[in-house]
Specification:
Order of helices and strands: HHEEHHHEEHHHHHHHHEEH
Low-confidence stretches: 352-375
Mean pLDDT: 86
Strand content: under 5%
Largest sheet: 2 strands, antiparallel
Number of strands: 6
Shape: globular
Amino acid sequence: MDALRDHPEVIYGAVSAFVIVILLTPAVGGMARLLGVVDRPEARRLNPNPIPRLGGLAIFFGIFVPALAFLELGPETRGVLLGAAVATVVGAIDDFRVLKPGRKLAGQVIAAAIPPFFGVWIDHFTFPFLGPVDLPAAVGVPLTMVWIVAVMNMVNFLDGMDGLAAGVCAIAGVTYAILSLSLGKPDPAILSAIIAGACIGFLRHNFFPARIFMGDSGALGLGFLLAAVSVQGLLKTASTVVLLLPLLVLAVPIIDTSFVVARRLKHRQPISSPDQAHLHFRFLRRGYSQRRAAVIMWAWCATLAVAALATRFIPFREGGVWHPWETLAVIGIALAALAFSLYVVYVLEIVKSTNPRRFRLGRRHEPVDEQRRSA
């Protein structure tokens, strides 16, 4: 609370982004309709009416404007915002005209190369039992770029159901803001809060039934920003535990992407080829509505985020001494997160739907064509 009182920009930025995105998104949707950048109803698509898919532009401006107002525009912040602009442009081009996978990846790599140029890269790493180790640029810069490109694609893969990606990114943004504040890094905290506010504002228009999709412009932009602020605010730290927190907060998109990529490799399919193997599609095939499936995946992400926060804020080990009650509290929270994860596995892999409501064209339980929002 003291850190929040010292940096009220965290709240101001989040609220500003929320308001801007709520007000700007309808205008962006109207522009997308005029330009013909819409998802039209087809045999394998969910939406019964044409839906614009440039919502990422509203999200970007909802983040960019408060960032200019509340952040100190030092080199690192400029690098993150410039890279986010490039990532959003690459996604917008793909929304207008589908890019070939190689060109799209090249655009992502270019965006990911910008933050390291401005000093946002993992320059040291803390290994268990070894302590902090300085990383040369030849190692830290490529590692940072791989992380940024990976998270961009994870969010893009996750964006296959109304409100899902925006909700997960909002949870991640709130968690990163809290963690960065606790580490005394206000700029990443403010930017993370702005990201969360923008995502929550977008949900006003994107939750089922969606009136607009974020498209690749939103998915790539949000993925880039979450990866960049995690490097700026968390990964460049001397704490071994904190280094694991971004992986825990983003565990849901990481699990989803890993499962899909492994399945495509197993069946010798191109990694970029669309299919319906994502976790959210599996929920729909079990008979869940889009609303219920999205809320369950949000709750799953939130339990993992709470586990990350507990690991950071509950002093279960200080000065080499273990504190039993605090340790039991952390273990209990971790077990709750694990139990929720096992519940998801149980639902998706073990339970066979007693009411096999396989998707029907144009119905709410229909799995969405992944190409609708470009995997």
